Amino acid sequence: KNEVEQSPQNLTAQEGEFITINCSYSVGISALHWLQQHPGGGIVSLFMLSSGKKKHGRLIATINIQEKHSSLHITASHPRDSAVYICAVRGGGSQGNLIFGKGTKLSVKP
Amino acid sequence: EAGVAQSPRYKIIEKRQSVAFWCNPISGHATLYWYQQILGQGPKLLIQFQNNGVVDDSQLPKDRFSAERLKGVDSTLKIQPAKLEDSAVYLCASSRQAGAGNEQFFGPGTRLTVL
């Protein structure tokens, strides 16, 4: 079992729909990251959170430390949101390397 | 501020050939990471540098992969000789320091295809 599990693996939505991507992890963490990866490979950091909720534009990220679960929500989805969304957790310790999920491929149709 | 730069963006080689990738981190970032991302998988850490020293290379296949960051700034990752299973995107990332609270910034990646 992977230390970071994402669901769903693939998601197709119609423009305007509300989207939720889930991430569960099995290790102790100091922070959780949501990353966006467009075709071509480059990764952009969307959120880094260790508790509660963060909002940026149409994106909302929540985390429940007790349940070891996080969700990424996209409101009023748009075709330009089509990308792979990756959940990564950072362990504790002085190095605290990132452990990545496999990603959720989102396709938003016009 | 300029982001993490990587080159080349794409590389196609035949198996048993050698290849090298280059990364220039964000100015002032002490920590540099190389990741391998195979299609359909999340990135896997290959090596982490703190300045010009190696912090973690436990998942680097040292029989064929090598990396250096001689002056603590730019870094190169080399594969010699390449195998078919090395086909992947190689991502470089940097952060101000290692550890919690230090966000990693990723470069655009180098997509390697080994034929």
Strand content of chain B: over 45%
Instruction: Assign a percent range to the helix content of chain A.
Output: under 10%
Structural class by SSE content of chain A:
mainly beta
* Helical run tally of chain B: 0
Shape category of chain A: globular
Helix content of chain B: under 10%
Write out key terms for the chains shown:
heterodimer; A: 110 residues; mainly beta; six-stranded mixed β-sheet; 58% strand; B: 115 residues
Give a brief description:
By secondary structure, chain A is mainly beta. In chain A, 0% of the residues lie in helices and 58% in strands. In chain A, the strands form 2 sheets. In chain A, strands 2, 4, 5, 9, 10 and 11 form a 6-stranded mixed beta sheet that branches. A 5-stranded antiparallel beta sheet of chain A has the order 1-3-8-7-6, with no helix packed on it.
List the helices and strands and how they pair.
The complex is a heterodimer of chains A (110) and B (115).
Chain A: E1 4-7, E2 10-14, E3 19-25, E4 31-37, E5 43-49, E6 52-56, E7 59-64, E8 69-74, E9 83-90, E10 98-100, E11 104-109
Parallel strand pairs in A: 2-11
Antiparallel strand pairs in A: 1-3, 3-8, 4-5, 4-9, 6-7, 7-8, 9-10, 9-11
Chain B: E1 5-7, E2 10-13, E3 19-24, E4 31-37, E5 44-50, E6 53-56, E7 65-68, E8 75-79, E9 88-95, E10 105-106, E11 110-114
Parallel strand pairs in B: 2-11
Antiparallel strand pairs in B: 1-3, 3-8, 4-5, 4-9, 5-6, 7-8, 9-10, 9-11
